[in-house]
Amino acid sequence: MKRFVFGFISVFMSMVAMAQGDAADSVMNHARGNRLSIGGYGEVCFSRNYFSDHVSRYSQPEEHKNDPSHGRFDIPHAVIYLGYDFGKGWSFGTEIEFEHGGTGIAYEKEDEEGGEWEQETEKSGEVELEQFWLQKTFGRWGNLRVGHIVVPVGLNNAHHEPLNFFTVYRPEGENTIMPSTWHQTGISFFGRYGDFRYEAQFLAGLNADHFTNTGWIHKGNKSPLEFDVANKYGAALRIDNYSVPGLRIGLSGYYGHSIGNTYPNDASGAGATYKGKIAIGSIDFTYHAHNWIVRGQADYGYLGDAEQLKYMYNRLNSKSPYKHSAFVSGNAYAIGIEAGYDIFSQIESMRKDGQKFYVFGRYEAYNPYASDTKGVSYAYTAVKRFAVGVNYYPIRQIAIKGEYSKRLLKNLYNDEPSINLGVAYVGLFR
Asked: What is the pTM of this model?
């Protein structure tokens, strides 16, 4: 038993390190051997949700019990990678992401604003510059990267490409409480030594005016301006170990201040009195061996001065882009695990042809409003969710996904079942 536990922990440790490399360095990892590399990933999804999409389904659940189901097609992400090796240790990488099919002005029904329709144009619209950096490599042990970079906190940010999770959409818990994919401008130092990969980052701070009761800090890295405000700063750290083949485990965390990281800088206002400290800790793993893939993560976050956010000037000003009237929680958490077995591994012809067919299950629990602020509660934010389904890989770079999922909410609300279908790819074109 001892030997099994030690072996399991060891494999667990090795796989997370490999995942972090794959995600944060996706351009350069795919580009090995070429000076110029072009690649990308994308996903097309269909969902049929067997529950109400009315804005009052949580505030008046009894009135929307029998509302009809609703469906939607979506292109969550279509991404183009571009990388270039200049030589002498200098390289460049960029990742351009088209979210939900394009760019422009969109209308959204804001649940947090009582269902008010809003015309929304965010910075970059629906086109995101997710990575844009210049890198100097000194050796395997050390690389310095400056620019717009992925913040590798949690499993989802370290594995955001669609073949790195079984579900049709990105895992819901981490995607709810943290930015996803979390990318910011800053400086990163990373490298490998022995069985460890390590990375430390210095970044522009998050903006507390974007925090919400249903998403915690999820929108905190966004900016409605032509630049990212950097009155306050943050730091991220990740350490991965991959000593045992087939398994990896990683520890990651973030610390920074968020109140006062706004424009214009009110030096004598709330930013001078309150800090809005953010501290996040995460442990995650992936096991990939013996025809199994198992992934899991646990994240816990703390936000200081949470009770003050509702009253910040930018959130009260109806003309500002930060119209959030709800309280924000001082704590949030997300826990999840998924496991899949390759059925085709037992069929010789399929195995030889490189085809894979995973049958999987996933369970997660998360809450972006895990602690009541000033005695105010939002019971619908505590979610448990399970999903069962299949992933078929006709070739290594393409997955066809299908799943049945269900959110398990508190008794006064309806559970939220859905059927999701998707096609995804990750590939290097050159």
From this structure: 0.87
